[in-house]
Amino acid sequence: MKFLEDPMQTMGAGFALAVVLIVAYLGMAGISAGDADWFGIIVRWVHFLAGITWIGLLYFFNLINAAFLKSLDGPTKNVVIPKLMPSALNWFRHGATVTVLAGLILYFKLYSHGGTGAYALGIGGLLGLIMMGNVHGIIWPNQKKIIAAVSAAAQGTPAPPEMAQWGRTALLASRVNFMLSIPMLFFMGAGSHIK
Description:
Layout: H1 7-29, H2 38-71, H3 74-111, H4 116-154, H5 163-190
Helix pairs in contact: 2-3, 2-5, 3-4, 4-5
């Protein structure tokens, strides 16, 4: 069970397990592999996985991390932020991009013909596009400056006075995304249930 000690190996094992279970499911259900829309299934799966990564980190940042970082003293922040935030924000912003791109592919493949379900998904998708814009246009640029400033502070360089404003701007954009995620998830889930 050594693969459980490395998250990338665990993820690889999860994909391998998925393939085994898919093959078993097709065999038990008597479904030919040619009877499935594999492109649609894979794109939706990628959309779900990336979305869970993105929104999960959004909730982590807003419900746990913001208050935790405020509770740390300066020297501790100088250690924690450069080690935690680059990786977390990397998964966060790439999760946002993959989620939105896969969602756009799905929307145009499955729902571009219109209808109430398509309108619901369109509302959810529009909220997702706004959220991705916040990630790449506001949150990440400000966090990148904060990470660089904190890393420099760990080496003795004084923190720039603008750093507090960078943090506030990133926090408010993240809170907007947190707020938008609630109706976005409703409309994304409702789309297939509205006729």
